[in-house]
Design a protein that fits this description.
Layout (H helix, E strand, L loop, with lengths): L5 E8 L8 E8 L6 H10 L27 E4 L2 E4 L12 E4 L6 E3 L2 E2 L2 H9 L20 H10 L7 H5 L12 H12 L7 H8 L13 H5 L6 H21 L7
Protein backbone atom coordinates (compact mmCIF):
# COMPACT_ATOMS: atom_id res chain seq x y z
CA UNK A 1 0.00 0.00 0.00
CA UNK A 2 1.49 3.35 -1.04
CA UNK A 3 2.04 6.14 1.46
CA UNK A 4 -0.51 8.89 1.64
CA UNK A 5 0.53 12.15 0.01
CA UNK A 6 1.54 14.93 2.41
CA UNK A 7 2.34 18.63 2.31
CA UNK A 8 5.32 20.11 4.15
CA UNK A 9 5.37 23.62 5.60
CA UNK A 10 8.25 25.47 7.22
CA UNK A 11 6.80 28.44 9.10
CA UNK A 12 8.82 31.27 10.58
CA UNK A 13 7.35 31.90 14.01
CA UNK A 14 7.79 34.58 16.64
CA UNK A 15 6.16 34.43 20.07
CA UNK A 16 5.94 38.22 20.56
CA UNK A 17 7.30 41.42 19.00
CA UNK A 18 10.49 41.32 21.11
CA UNK A 19 11.36 37.62 20.87
CA UNK A 20 13.64 36.02 18.28
CA UNK A 21 12.08 34.31 15.24
CA UNK A 22 12.46 30.56 14.72
CA UNK A 23 11.34 28.02 12.13
CA UNK A 24 8.93 25.20 12.82
CA UNK A 25 8.07 22.40 10.40
CA UNK A 26 4.61 20.90 9.90
CA UNK A 27 3.48 17.96 7.77
CA UNK A 28 -0.18 17.78 6.74
CA UNK A 29 -2.23 15.25 4.77
CA UNK A 30 -2.69 16.44 1.19
CA UNK A 31 -6.12 17.46 -0.03
CA UNK A 32 -7.02 18.51 -3.59
CA UNK A 33 -7.52 22.25 -4.15
CA UNK A 34 -5.85 23.08 -0.85
CA UNK A 35 -4.68 26.65 -0.32
CA UNK A 36 -2.27 28.05 2.27
CA UNK A 37 -5.09 29.38 4.44
CA UNK A 38 -6.78 25.98 4.67
CA UNK A 39 -3.44 24.45 5.66
CA UNK A 40 -2.97 27.05 8.40
CA UNK A 41 -6.49 26.36 9.63
CA UNK A 42 -5.65 22.64 9.82
CA UNK A 43 -2.52 23.43 11.86
CA UNK A 44 -4.61 25.63 14.15
CA UNK A 45 -7.12 22.80 14.61
CA UNK A 46 -4.38 20.30 15.46
CA UNK A 47 -1.15 22.15 16.40
CA UNK A 48 1.36 19.31 16.23
CA UNK A 49 4.69 19.86 14.44
CA UNK A 50 6.58 17.47 12.18
CA UNK A 51 8.33 15.92 15.20
CA UNK A 52 4.99 14.94 16.68
CA UNK A 53 5.30 17.56 19.40
CA UNK A 54 2.33 19.58 20.59
CA UNK A 55 2.88 23.26 19.87
CA UNK A 56 0.97 26.53 19.91
CA UNK A 57 -1.43 27.34 17.04
CA UNK A 58 0.09 29.53 14.32
CA UNK A 59 -1.21 33.11 14.32
CA UNK A 60 -2.01 35.00 11.11
CA UNK A 61 -4.55 37.51 9.78
CA UNK A 62 -7.41 36.72 7.42
CA UNK A 63 -10.90 37.90 6.66
CA UNK A 64 -12.59 37.58 3.26
CA UNK A 65 -10.73 34.52 1.90
CA UNK A 66 -11.27 35.75 -1.68
CA UNK A 67 -8.46 38.28 -2.28
CA UNK A 68 -10.52 41.35 -1.43
CA UNK A 69 -9.62 42.37 2.13
CA UNK A 70 -5.81 42.18 1.82
CA UNK A 71 -5.43 40.93 5.40
CA UNK A 72 -3.74 37.58 4.72
CA UNK A 73 -0.57 38.92 3.08
CA UNK A 74 2.61 37.02 3.89
CA UNK A 75 5.81 35.85 2.20
CA UNK A 76 5.22 32.51 0.53
CA UNK A 77 8.31 30.80 -0.91
CA UNK A 78 10.11 34.14 -0.95
CA UNK A 79 7.34 36.14 -2.61
CA UNK A 80 4.90 38.52 -0.88
CA UNK A 81 1.35 37.53 -1.82
CA UNK A 82 -2.10 36.62 -0.57
CA UNK A 83 -2.28 33.27 1.19
CA UNK A 84 -5.95 32.77 0.33
CA UNK A 85 -5.17 32.50 -3.39
CA UNK A 86 -1.89 30.60 -2.98
CA UNK A 87 -2.73 27.04 -4.04
CA UNK A 88 -0.62 24.24 -2.60
CA UNK A 89 -0.57 22.39 -5.96
CA UNK A 90 1.21 25.36 -7.53
CA UNK A 91 3.86 25.79 -4.82
CA UNK A 92 7.24 24.14 -4.48
CA UNK A 93 7.67 22.09 -1.32
CA UNK A 94 8.54 22.53 1.44
CA UNK A 95 6.31 25.58 1.42
CA UNK A 96 8.01 28.33 3.41
CA UNK A 97 5.83 30.92 5.13
CA UNK A 98 7.25 34.10 6.64
CA UNK A 99 5.75 37.38 7.85
CA UNK A 100 6.30 40.43 5.64
CA UNK A 101 9.47 42.09 6.94
CA UNK A 102 8.49 45.68 6.08
CA UNK A 103 6.00 45.71 8.96
CA UNK A 104 6.56 44.92 12.66
CA UNK A 105 5.67 41.36 13.66
CA UNK A 106 2.97 40.97 16.28
CA UNK A 107 3.19 37.20 16.46
CA UNK A 108 4.11 34.49 13.93
CA UNK A 109 2.71 35.58 10.54
CA UNK A 110 0.59 38.38 11.98
CA UNK A 111 1.97 41.86 11.30
CA UNK A 112 1.16 45.46 12.24
CA UNK A 113 0.26 47.40 9.07
CA UNK A 114 -0.14 50.73 10.90
CA UNK A 115 2.64 52.25 8.83
CA UNK A 116 0.55 51.92 5.68
CA UNK A 117 -2.70 53.04 7.29
CA UNK A 118 -0.98 56.09 8.82
CA UNK A 119 0.30 56.97 5.34
CA UNK A 120 -3.25 56.76 3.97
CA UNK A 121 -4.39 59.12 6.73
CA UNK A 122 -1.55 61.49 5.89
CA UNK A 123 -2.63 61.81 2.25
CA UNK A 124 -6.34 61.99 3.20
CA UNK A 125 -7.24 58.92 1.14
CA UNK A 126 -10.96 59.46 1.37
CA UNK A 127 -13.58 61.98 0.27
CA UNK A 128 -14.70 64.13 3.21
CA UNK A 129 -18.38 65.04 2.99
CA UNK A 130 -20.10 66.75 5.93
CA UNK A 131 -23.41 65.50 7.28
CA UNK A 132 -25.11 62.15 7.61
CA UNK A 133 -28.08 63.08 5.44
CA UNK A 134 -28.53 62.30 1.77
CA UNK A 135 -26.79 64.95 -0.31
CA UNK A 136 -28.26 63.67 -3.56
CA UNK A 137 -26.35 62.52 -6.61
CA UNK A 138 -22.84 63.92 -6.93
CA UNK A 139 -21.11 65.11 -10.09
CA UNK A 140 -20.58 62.44 -12.70
CA UNK A 141 -17.14 61.34 -13.79
CA UNK A 142 -16.47 61.07 -17.53
CA UNK A 143 -16.55 57.43 -18.61
CA UNK A 144 -13.01 57.42 -20.00
CA UNK A 145 -11.64 58.73 -16.70
CA UNK A 146 -13.87 56.41 -14.67
CA UNK A 147 -12.44 53.34 -16.39
CA UNK A 148 -8.85 53.93 -15.31
CA UNK A 149 -9.87 55.34 -11.92
CA UNK A 150 -11.70 52.07 -11.28
CA UNK A 151 -8.42 50.21 -11.71
CA UNK A 152 -6.88 52.33 -8.94
CA UNK A 153 -9.88 51.67 -6.69
CA UNK A 154 -9.08 47.95 -6.65
CA UNK A 155 -6.41 48.54 -3.98
CA UNK A 156 -7.13 46.32 -0.95
CA UNK A 157 -4.37 47.76 1.29
CA UNK A 158 -2.66 44.37 1.41
CA UNK A 159 0.80 45.92 1.79
CA UNK A 160 2.42 43.69 -0.85
CA UNK A 161 3.65 46.68 -2.87
CA UNK A 162 5.28 48.17 0.23
CA UNK A 163 6.94 44.84 0.98
CA UNK A 164 8.26 44.62 -2.60
CA UNK A 165 9.54 48.21 -2.64
CA UNK A 166 13.24 48.48 -1.69
CA UNK A 167 12.67 52.07 -0.54
CA UNK A 168 10.17 51.10 2.17
CA UNK A 169 12.14 49.88 5.18
CA UNK A 170 12.90 50.69 8.82
CA UNK A 171 15.56 53.21 7.76
CA UNK A 172 13.19 55.15 5.51
CA UNK A 173 9.96 57.08 6.05
CA UNK A 174 8.85 56.70 2.41
CA UNK A 175 5.06 56.26 2.42
CA UNK A 176 5.11 53.70 -0.38
CA UNK A 177 3.28 53.09 -3.67
CA UNK A 178 -0.27 52.35 -2.43
CA UNK A 179 -0.86 55.69 -0.64
CA UNK A 180 0.59 57.58 -3.61
CA UNK A 181 -1.75 55.84 -6.03
CA UNK A 182 -4.70 56.61 -3.74
CA UNK A 183 -3.89 60.32 -4.03
CA UNK A 184 -4.33 60.05 -7.77
CA UNK A 185 -7.62 58.17 -7.32
CA UNK A 186 -9.21 60.66 -4.93
CA UNK A 187 -7.85 63.73 -6.72
CA UNK A 188 -9.49 62.42 -9.89
CA UNK A 189 -12.91 62.17 -8.25
CA UNK A 190 -15.00 65.32 -8.92
CA UNK A 191 -15.80 65.74 -5.23
CA UNK A 192 -12.45 64.51 -3.98
CA UNK A 193 -10.74 67.23 -6.04
CA UNK A 194 -11.82 69.70 -3.35
CA UNK A 195 -8.87 68.49 -1.26
CA UNK A 196 -6.50 68.03 -4.19
CA UNK A 197 -3.93 70.60 -3.06
CA UNK A 198 -3.88 69.17 0.46
CA UNK A 199 -3.10 65.68 -0.81
CA UNK A 200 -0.39 66.92 -3.16
CA UNK A 201 1.20 68.93 -0.33
CA UNK A 202 1.33 65.74 1.74
CA UNK A 203 3.16 63.97 -1.10
CA UNK A 204 5.63 66.85 -1.36
CA UNK A 205 6.66 66.52 2.28
CA UNK A 206 9.35 64.37 3.84
CA UNK A 207 8.94 60.70 2.97
CA UNK A 208 6.64 61.57 0.10
CA UNK A 209 6.88 60.95 -3.61
CA UNK A 210 10.56 61.89 -3.82
CA UNK A 211 11.34 58.66 -1.95
CA UNK A 212 10.39 56.53 -4.97
CA UNK A 213 13.44 54.98 -6.65
CA UNK A 214 11.46 53.76 -9.69
CA UNK A 215 12.43 50.12 -9.15
CA UNK A 216 8.96 49.12 -10.46
CA UNK A 217 8.82 46.18 -8.04
CA UNK A 218 5.44 47.44 -6.86
CA UNK A 219 3.63 47.17 -10.17
CA UNK A 220 5.09 43.71 -10.77
CA UNK A 221 3.99 42.39 -7.38
CA UNK A 222 0.53 43.99 -7.03
CA UNK A 223 -2.03 41.15 -6.87
CA UNK A 224 -4.67 43.41 -8.44
CA UNK A 225 -2.53 44.57 -11.35
CA UNK A 226 -2.89 48.24 -10.39
CA UNK A 227 -0.76 50.56 -12.59
CA UNK A 228 1.13 51.98 -9.62
CA UNK A 229 4.10 53.34 -11.56
CA UNK A 230 1.73 55.15 -13.94
CA UNK A 231 0.16 56.86 -10.91
CA UNK A 232 3.57 57.79 -9.53
CA UNK A 233 4.62 59.30 -12.87
CA UNK A 234 1.37 61.29 -13.11
CA UNK A 235 1.77 62.59 -9.57
CA UNK A 236 5.39 63.58 -10.21
CA UNK A 237 3.94 66.00 -12.76
CA UNK A 238 1.11 67.10 -10.46
CA UNK A 239 3.43 67.81 -7.53
CA UNK A 240 5.77 69.77 -9.82
CA UNK A 241 2.85 71.93 -10.94
CA UNK A 242 1.78 72.33 -7.33
CA UNK A 243 5.28 73.51 -6.45
CA UNK A 244 5.14 76.20 -9.13
CA UNK A 245 1.64 77.14 -8.01
CA UNK A 246 2.90 77.58 -4.46
CA UNK A 247 5.91 79.58 -5.62
CA UNK A 248 4.02 81.99 -7.84
CA UNK A 249 0.94 82.08 -5.66
CA UNK A 250 -1.32 81.45 -8.64
CA UNK A 251 -4.69 79.74 -8.44
CA UNK A 252 -5.03 79.66 -12.21
CA UNK A 253 -2.28 77.30 -13.32
CA UNK A 254 -3.39 74.49 -15.62
CA UNK A 255 -3.04 71.00 -14.15
Amino acid sequence: MSEKKTVEFIITRQDNPESAPYDEKFVLPYRPNMNVISALMEIRRNPVNANGEKTTPVTWDMNCLEEVCGACSMIINGKPRQSCTALVDQLEQPIRLKPMKTFPVIRDLQIDRSRMFDALKRVKAWIPIDGTYDLGPGPRMPEKKRQWAYELSKCMTCGVCLEACPNVNDKSNFIGPAPISQVRLFNTHPTGAMNKDERLEALMGEGGIEGCGNSQNCVQSCPKGIPLTTSIAALNRSTSLQMFKNFFGSDHMVD
